[in-house]
Design a protein that fits this description.
- The protein has 5 helices and 2 strands, in the order E-E-H-H-H-H-H.
- It is mainly α and 146 residues long.
- It has a domain of 51 residues.
- A two-stranded antiparallel sheet has the order 1-2.
- Strand 1 and strand 2 form a beta hairpin.
- The longest helix has 20 residues.
- Bound molecules: zinc ion.
- Zinc ion binds next to helix 1.
Length: 146
């Protein structure tokens, strides 16, 4: 493991956080990560308690969702809540967004008639929207719609 530690900046105040310190010989990476997380959590608790509270609440919801995945129910109260949690996790953690321009660029590389290209691009946009559940997203947070 590298002994180089890259800076971690607080998104709330811009503070450059102290790292977990030098690598301790024999320390497992997960132990080092745990020390780092502890320090970051202490910063949130001291300077941004609302952000820490939000993280704790979401963590509890994720834990509840993972617990409920071990059971089956048709209770709409539970299934609706579970689906909302699943969506929020997906929405907040997905790595990529696919703008219409990216779809158009990809389709332009396929040898198609203009009508076929339009149909393929439309099908790809529809598939993207289904997978990304863009109909559930608030407009400002929806960069795929252009
Ligand atoms: Zn901060």
């Amino acid at each position: 493991m590298s002994s180089i530690t890259l800076p971690i900046n607080c998104r709330h105040c811009g503070k450059i956080m102290k790292t977990a310190g030098p690598v301790i010989i024999g320390e497992k990476p997960e132990q080092r990560t745990a020390r780092q997380m502890q320090a970051l959590g202490e910063h949130l608790q001291a300077d941004h308690p609302e952000a820490l509270m939000k993280a704790v609440m979401i963590g509890a919801q994720v834990q509840g969702m993972l617990l409920m995945q071990n059971f089956e129910t048709s209770d709409p109260t539970i299934t609706t809540h579970m689906d909302q949690m699943r969506y929020e996790i997906h929405h907040n953690t997905r790595r990529i967004r696919i703008p219409d321009a990216s779809i158009a660029l990809r389709v332009s590389k396929i040898e198609l008639s203009p009508d076929q290209a339009q149909e393929v691009a439309q099908a790809m946009r529809e598939m993207r929207d289904i997978l990304m559940e863009t109909d559930r997203e608030p407009e400002p947070a929806n960069p795929t719609r252009q």
